């Protein structure tokens, strides 16, 4: 296998990472071994990043970090081009999922500072998306929306429908949290054909999840459950652990709203277990919050207090990072610099 064939193999693996994660892992392994045989360092580093991306889909964040660190170590002594930016962006994504927000912001901001030779435009755009998600997690919804709209502008400039769909979904989530439901729903309708054209099951599931959350916020519980069940099915089909946990969380809230307390307890406990397995502090906090509400309705005072305490502890830990981090504090000021 020559270098061109290795690059083609990695391009194939990237295309299927979100829909056929196990196959992507196998292709990345094959590309890495072939790169080693040729002493093709850029190919080896790129294979590690693709491998890490597939591991992330399975909720195996720490293993993904090991691969990404190895890719950057290769880059310390060898030219790896835009693989450096791809690795930093993926490291940030893992840290974000784990609730290590200051580390995530460091990596995403580094993506914006890299020279063009070390980061593709796609990953600069993804860095803006990530920074917006960090602001969202810190309940700065208007500023998050500004970052995601900036990212959408960059994606449009690149004429990249895949990136545009990512940005639109995040804009829709921001709008939903700002109670701008009509705008949110309209934005999701704009994103859906782009996602389907690209056959991206991960983002299609996310769209159904957000639609379900909008219905839930409006008190349309049956419609919410239908959308959330579709999201859950898709996430399980292509093994997106984070997506599965999120779907279960919102299904639990839907069941609770309908008075199906046993179903809600089962769904929320499963969501919490998956969140804990991934180390996702944000999802863990939201699951504890929902369980506290559920047990309060069931008049189980001790369980309600226990979960409310867990929620407040996790929430405070996450929010403290916003005040402790000078990077997070100045994100709004740096919005238009890149």
TrEMBL record:
GO terms for cellular component: cytoplasm. InterPro entries: Bac_ResReg_Asp_Phosphatase, TPR-like_helical_dom_sf, TPR_rpt. PROSITE patterns: TPR (PS50005). Keywords: Cytoplasm, Repeat, TPR repeat. Its main location: cytoplasm. It is found in: Cytoplasm. Transmembrane segments: none annotated. It comes from the Bacteria. Coiled coil: none annotated. TPR repeats lie at residues 125-158. PANTHER family: TETRATRICOPEPTIDE REPEAT PROTEIN 29 (PTHR46630:SF1). Belongs to the Rap family. This is Tetratricopeptide repeat protein. It comes from Amantichitinum ursilacus.
């Amino acid at each position: 296998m020559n270098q061109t064939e290795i690059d083609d193999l990695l391009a194939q693996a990237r295309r299927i990472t979100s829909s056929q994660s196990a196959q992507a892992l196998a292709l990345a392994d094959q590309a890495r071994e072939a790169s080693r045989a040729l002493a093709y360092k850029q190919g080896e580093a790129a294979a590690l990043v693709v491998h890490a991306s597939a591991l992330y889909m399975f909720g195996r964040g720490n293993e993904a970090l090991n691969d990404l660190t190895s890719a950057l170590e290769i880059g310390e002594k060898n030219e790896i081009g835009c693989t450096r930016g791809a690795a930093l962006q993926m490291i940030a994504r893992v840290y974000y999922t784990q609730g290590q927000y200051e580390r995530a912001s460091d990596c995403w901001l580094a993506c914006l500072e890299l020279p063009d030779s070390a980061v593709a435009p796609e990953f600069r755009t993804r860095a803006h998306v990530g920074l917006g998600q960090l602001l969202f997690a810190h309940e700065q919804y208007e500023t998050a929306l500004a970052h995601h709209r900036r990212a959408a502008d960059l994606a449009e400039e690149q004429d990249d429908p895949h990136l545009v769909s990512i940005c639109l979904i995040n804009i829709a989530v921001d709008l939903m949290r700002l109670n701008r439901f009509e705008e949110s729903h309209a934005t999701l309708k704009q994103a859906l054909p782009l996602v389907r054209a690209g056959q991206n099951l991960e983002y299609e599931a996310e769209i159904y999840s957000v639609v379900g959350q909008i219905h839930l916020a409006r008190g349309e519980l049956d419609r919410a459950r239908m959308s959330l069940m579709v999201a859950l099915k898709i996430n399980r089909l292509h093994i997106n652990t984070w997506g599965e946990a999120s779907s279960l969380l919102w299904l639990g809230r839907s069941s609770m709203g309908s008075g199906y307390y046993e179903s809600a307890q089962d769904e929320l406990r499963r969501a919490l277990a998956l969140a804990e397995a991934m180390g996702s502090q944000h999802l863990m906090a939201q699951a504890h919050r929902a369980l506290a509400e559920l047990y309060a309705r069931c008049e189980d005072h001790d369980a309600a207090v226990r979960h409310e305490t867990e929620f407040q502890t996790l929430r405070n830990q996450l929010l403290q990072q916003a005040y402790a981090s000078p990077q997070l504090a100045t994100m709004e000021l740096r919005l238009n610099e890149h």
